[in-house]
Amino acid sequence: MVGGETFSWRAEQQLDPSTADQRSTFPSSTGCVALTRRTMDNRPVRRRRPGAVRHLLLAAAFLACSSQLLVVDANSWWSLALTPIQRPEMYIIGAQPLCSQLSGLSQGQRKLCQLYQDHMIYIGDGAKTGIKECQYQFRQRRWNCSTVDNTSVFGRVMQIGSRETAFTYSISAAGVVNAISRACREGELSTCGCSRSARPRDLPRDWLWGGCGDNVHYGYRFAREFVDAREREKNYPKGSIEHARTLMNLQNNEAGRQAVYNLANVACKCHGVSGSCSLKTCWLQLADFRRVGEFLKEKYDSAAAMRIGRKGKLELVDKRFNTPTPEDLVYIDPSPDYCLRNETTGSLGTQGRLCNKTSEGMDGCELMCCGRGYDQFKTYKHERCHCKFHWCCYVKCKRCTTLVDQFVCK
């Protein structure tokens, strides 16, 4: 079983994210504590402000600190997907270190970055792959996985422990496993190479095993250490709602990694004279990431509603359902209303979204527009047409323009 493997590589020997400093970094990063102290200590002793004024000043300071804390908490390693990352060897002597330039990393993730700088560009690629797949899977839903900025990436909607948040965590973790595993095979990382997985028992004897495969074992282990580091550093009281959210995130991260690990399969190539298949060489190969996205989308549809129990663990809200496995997604909060724009929840609403007039599914105008109606307009659509193959060897196409109807939610 994947979760039972011993993590014996260099990261665990030098750093265990679960033992990282668990004190809150908010005061030092926001300066709110220092601001309050100056306000209280520097006030003249003989001069007293009216009570109402003092209360207003304290309230303003509290709101300023709260807003800063919200921004800090919203930062995520997902922002690596939207930030260009240069290769470490491109930095000259005296330049600012790579890891100090990357925003959104927790303390443990930053230490891992220092140990494995060549991994960071592929973590960014993995996050980008996860975001794109999320947007594809939800392209016809009211919530379409839109990115809103370069820090929180998805905005305030991620502060709600909904099933959409669960999918986002899982697909992002899956993207990191996918990117790191493939980078190992391509020789881009100094601490890993081709897959060394054991020969499958059901592989025919006359087939060779040992082609350069995707190193999904290494990808899984590194993604577990890096992605989970942020959650394991948190030290919320056991049984609190914050602790429940941490457990939810860890469960969904694992589900994403398990999806990539379990969907990897054996690929083979034939060898022989004149195209004969007298000999085959086989290796371990990652599944197409679209298949991973579809698999996790199915897990999203069947995600389990959970709550924190008396023992400080997540338990099912409805006991009639089966207990979630490590491959399943879980959530603790109901989804917000994605029909209307709401700054508090982070919902962008569906106003202005394209819809399908003839569809009865979620992409149909009735459901997508939440009963508000839709506007119709005409637009020109350009596409390639009348393609012909010319010997040898190219395809020549014409450019066709058609006038089509489009429908937009009010």
UniProtKB/TrEMBL annotation:
Single Gene Ontology BP term? cartilage morphogenesis
Q: Which GO terms describe its molecular function?
A: cytokine activity; frizzled binding
Task: State the PANTHER family in the record.
Answer: PROTEIN WNT-5B (PTHR12027:SF87), WNT RELATED (PTHR12027)
Q: Which family does it belong to?
A: Belongs to the Wnt family.
Designated name of the protein? Protein Wnt
Write out the function statement from the record: Ligand for members of the frizzled family of seven transmembrane receptors.
Q: Which residues cross the membrane?
A: none
**Native source species:** Sparus aurata (Gilthead sea bream)
- Subcellular locations according to the entry: Secreted, Extracellular space, Extracellular matrix
Give the CC-aspect GO terms.
extracellular space
The alphabetized UniProt keywords are: Developmental protein, Disulfide bond, Extracellular matrix, Glycoprotein, Lipoprotein, Secreted, Wnt signaling pathway
